[in-house]
Amino acid sequence: MDELKRPAPTKWITARIATLLTHYFAADIPPQVQEAIAADWVAALRGNPAWAIARACQWWISAENTARRKRPLPGDIEERAAIEMGPVRVAEAVLGFGIKSRPEIDHTREPRGGEIPLERRRAQSQELLGSAVSWPEARRESKGEK
Fold first, then answer.
1. From what superkingdom does this record's organism come (predicted)?
2. 8 Å CB contact between 13 and 47
3. Helices 50-61 and 74-84, interaxial angle, to 10°?
4. Which residues lie across from 7 on neighbouring strands?
5. In the chain, which end has fewer C-beta atoms inside a 10 angstrom radius, N or C?
6. Which residues neighbour 13 within 8 Å (Cβ) at sequence distance 6 or greater?
């Protein structure tokens, strides 16, 4: 699990984002501004694993993304990387809380509902019906009538 969550190195992030942004036209940008832009991307994506960032970038330029024709902002890729990480977070929660993939059967407890054998349910139903008082009789008794 730790391997799937290992954050991408800063150099890798800047190289991947530079590749992504190469798909979009950009006028000549001074080196200081390029560095500031790179810092924004690193700040947004820091902590995400390389595979999630790469998948987010691939998704951005794919036919699945209706906004693919516009240049992405750091938050766009950050948001998609979080979506890519979703299954890892679910798996981590399942492992962390000890959720079982299938319920374990406790053979020591009394069966309930549909688990009770049909014959036993029928016998219980007959017993309840036999001891039940019909509505008119119960009403007369509550009024003190006999």
1. Bacteria
2. no
3. 120
4. 49
5. C
6. 41, 42, 45, 46, 50, 53
